[in-house]
């Protein structure tokens, strides 16, 4: 399937969009890692578009120049607060729904974006599918965080897919167990992928070899899950 891509920087929206040609009725908002709208999430948006979904990546840093260094990216992320991100994500979802006439909306988040994806799915009834890869749910919450994912997750009414690495230096095994417990108590489906040898961020990290090995299995399932829910 052919796709059309463009960078977005207008009307307070910053990010990247990929659309299938012809465009379908389903769309996904990707909330990226601390590294923002980098080649990894651009390629993921392209892959979703090839699966028939309009895919947008929101820039949580509102158009700041892209940086690749971990420390600088982490420092930027620590300045984000939940209220600000809620506004950015909401504006993008409104744009997808109204400007592109999408009938069904999904949300996908990686790392820090995974946490924000779960938070949004708990509060936005428009979202019919939520996928979170290695969501950065820290315990205790950071000073810039005000919303508790574990307390809000029971309110997610749509199907949820989680990708959990066995070695996650951000979210503990206890946190993942608590998240799985609250999601399993819902009436909506929960799909859980567990990769015991993979690390946090495994889809965009090539080392160790367990990371790309896990990605080969995990990534197509994420795309298939969203396509099944939204197409």
Keywords summarizing the entry:
globular, Rossmann fold, single chain, 231 residues, alpha/beta
Structure report:
With 231 residues, the chain is an alpha/beta fold. It has a single domain (2-230), classed as Rossmann fold (3-Layer(aba) Sandwich), CATH 3.40.50. It is 38% helix and 26% strand. It has helices spanning 39-50, 70-77, 82-99, 112-123, 149-152, 173-184, 210-230, and strands at 2-10, 13-21, 26-31, 54-58, 104-110, 127-133, 160-167, 190-199. The protein has an 8-stranded mixed β-sheet with strand order 1-2-4-3-5-6-7-8, with helices on both faces. Helix 5 (149-152) links the parallel strand 6 and strand 7. The longest helix is centred in the last third of the chain and has 21 residues, at 210-230. It is globular and about 45 Å long. The model has no long low-confidence stretch (mean pLDDT 97).
